[in-house]
Amino acid sequence: MRRIPLVLLALVGFACAKGPAAPPAAAPTAVENAALGLAVRPLPSGYTVAENVGERLAFDAVADGIPGNAAIAVAPPASSGINLVAEAKAWGEQAGAAPGGKFFGGNELVTPFGSAFTVRALVDGGATEERRIYLLHPGGGDRLVTLSLRYPPSQPEAARDRL
């Protein structure tokens, strides 16, 4: 008879030793990257950090149930100034000239940090739609910031919603 209570006591003790399961970690509301000198606040709905190491900041992004990925890149300081229109136009021409590529054009955006330019094109032989936004680094206008979002090709309305 003494064995049963000891076995039960041992099982209860083992169960208590593990403790309750920890709640899942909350998604970050802000992401900072010191190497780039940037922070994303707030993190948009549907975005999760895929990589935040050194000068690499990338996200997995789901919009309207369609997965994609986003990345932020910062160029080294430019001593001669940055022409956002020329940067956007050069990428659009390059994307449109590639096999299966198609350039859809671009627009100027007004942001809290000044003007920005957005362009959209089919890349990867037409298998991927990519939108890029070019703007000057908010910490100083001598660095180019490129935001890129890549996702499966879709209707123009979906592309506007993603922007």
Care to describe what's here?
There is one protein chain. A hairpin with a 2-residue loop joins strand 3 and strand 4. It contains three helices and nine strands, in the order H-E-E-E-E-E-H-E-E-E-E-H. The radius of gyration is 24 Å and the shape is globular. The chain is 23% helix and 41% strand. By secondary structure, the chain is of the alpha+beta class. The longest helix is centred in the first third of the chain and has 16 residues, at 3-18. The strands form two sheets. The protein has a seven-stranded antiparallel beta sheet with strand order 3-4-5-9-8-7-6, with helices on one face. Strands 1-2 form a two-stranded antiparallel sheet. The termini are far apart. It has helices at 3-18, 84-97, 156-162; strands spanning 31-33, 38-40, 47-53, 56-63, 66-74, 102-111, 114-123, 128-136, 144-151. Mean pLDDT is 83; it is low at 1-18.
Which terms summarize this structure?
3 helices, 163 residues, 7-stranded antiparallel β-sheet, disordered N terminus, alpha+beta, globular
Brief write-up:
It contains three helices and nine strands, in the order H-E-E-E-E-E-H-E-E-E-E-H. The chain has helices at 3-18, 84-97, 156-162; strands at 31-33, 38-40, 47-53, 56-63, 66-74, 102-111, 114-123, 128-136, 144-151. Residues 1-18 have low confidence and may be disordered.
